[in-house]
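Model: Ready when you are.
Researcher: Fold this.
Model:
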Amino acid sequence: MAYYRPYHPPADPALVRTLTQQQHDMRQQQRLEPLTASPKLIAGLDSSFPTEDTILSVIVVLTFPELQLVEKVYNYGPVDMPYVPGFLSFREAPNLLLAYEKLQHRPDVLMVDGHGYAHPRRMGIAAHIGVLLDMPSLGVAKQVLTGQHPEPEAAPGSRAPLTDKKTGELIGEVLRTKDRVKPVFVSPGHRLDQATATELAWRCTRGYKLPEPTRLADHWAEQFKKEIR
């Protein structure tokens, strides 16, 4: 589902400073580390904005590694936070938390449609929601937000590093999930390392560009959208 992004005037500098400080504080809690055990349930999270002032957040829960759907929930409601580039997670996270509260099956890992560490301040939505819930999380995004990368090889499963343009730090990986299709951008959010994040994204791929958790979250968003019209 497409984001609703009409023209917005420049953000209030005081708001930007406040949000930047909040991201800095959250980053102090962020941990990038290997998983201690293989997950049994993995969730896909996706948010979209049907209108400027409303948000629809969807969470699906799948078995892993079978990727069988066991639960799907959504939450639809108002959003008060204005759109500020680089701070979209503050618009998405509150409604995602409300959707998460509806789950009857608690996942072991969260796969979020968006970025994690591959963010200018290393705190994309996958990191943001992972820190808030203190859960292992990763982001799988369709477009690059920051950094530079070579093109991965054409074969599905090929990977290339996504690095910071100034420091050369590894902030994500570019993963080719399907032949002759643009790659996705994978980065850890919280309580995962890069190698684990990329491996999970690849193991959740089933012949589509997007891994199944986020692909199905996007699919069900279209279905749930019919219920809120």
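Researcher: Now this one.
Model:
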Amino acid sequence: MQAASEPGQVDLEPPGCKVLVVGCGNLLRGDDGVGPVLVRHLWELGVPDGAQMVDGGTAGMDTAFRMRGADRVVIVDAAATGSEPGTVYRVPGEEFAELPPLQGLHTHSFRWDHAIAFARWALGDACPTDITVFLIEVAGVDFGAELSEPVTAGMHTVIEVIERDFLAPLRPAKVAEVTVEFTDDGYVRLDAALAASRFASDAVAAVVRDDDFLLIPLRGPRSGGLLLKQRNPAGDRSALIHEVLYGRIPVGVRRAFWDDEQGALRVPLDPTS
């Protein structure tokens, strides 16, 4: 299929991405929902530019077509091999040379391994070659159950690996010393690079300790706190901190430092600090 090149034509090519993460499984069946739950955790941590996070559910055929245009694909699903619950398997896509048969399949029996096989058949050269599958051994798949403790632990291990090996290279470099701007209408403004590198989830807590203003990243809006709102087309972000700094807002541009010990952006309120 060719991209649209003349007025009036419609470009049906899907947007490409550097990394596609697909969580497969049924949220209603206990540990079988670990893939979609993992994707929700990644959403809360913040999706960097160039990445896409998809709740693949049980729609394997949708997963296959989602792969078009992706440089790297990560698929996460539950496994039931009889091993210790929470065991994590990392399987390179190259190991799926012997693909499962596609004849006689219908949508209810279409799994992630069928999705890989179908994508190779349907997409041809447009099918990504860099595919990694993470499988997490289940403890139970009862209807209405929560994720078990061992599967939850395994899920967080996989999240750490995905962040380290796939998402971290897409995130902006983290700079130790930056500047922020306090406005006279009670906002703190962060430039786009600072917001993306330190506050990717768009949720923050703002507190004052002694003579320091601290802006602390949270795991997403469900954690409460303040939301960083887009301030301009450049992607600069801002949060309303009027109530936190009532009567002592240091209007203007101020130096700020990343405090590793407190896990926060620290802004000295004393201009001599």
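Researcher: Key takeaway?
Model: Residues 105-109 have pLDDT under 50 and may be disordered.
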